[in-house]
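Worked example

This section walks through a single chain of length 78. The input is the sequence exactly as stored; nothing has been trimmed or padded.
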Amino acid sequence: MEGIRDSAERAVRAGELINVRHQSIGYLSRIRREAMDEMVAAGLNHSQIADRTGLTRQRVGQLLAAPPAEPILVPEDE
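Given that input, the structure is written out below as tokens.
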């Protein structure tokens, strides 16, 4: 990034990278939530899920209490 001399081009590229990162986080959050929902459906409690995932029991509770992440729509390239 530092090699891009034009300020506008650097700002645009930084924005693009931020968007990619945001989309990746949303995608990975959905994967984690689906996996945790599967563990609950299999009969695991929050403590067991915490032990298996390395999260705290409180964090597991927070994640499962929150609504599932909405899919992120990525515009197709023209």
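What to look for: The mean pLDDT is 89.
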